[in-house]
Amino acid sequence: MSTFRLICADVIDGLRTLPDASIDAVVADPPYGENVAAWDRNIGLDFHVAWITETQRILKPNAPLIAFGSRRRFDLLMGGVRIVRGDSAECPIQMGVWNHRQGFAHTSGHLRPEHEPFVVSGLLRVDSEEVRRIREYQTPHNLNRNPTKRSAASGMARGLKAFTYTPDTIGPIGGTTFDASRNKFAAATGHPSQKPVGVGYYLIALSSAPGQIVCDPFVGSGSFGEAALEMGRDFIGIDKDAGYIDGARSRLTDVASLFTRETAPDEIPVEVPA
Question: What is the pTM of this model?
Answer without folding.
Answer: 0.85
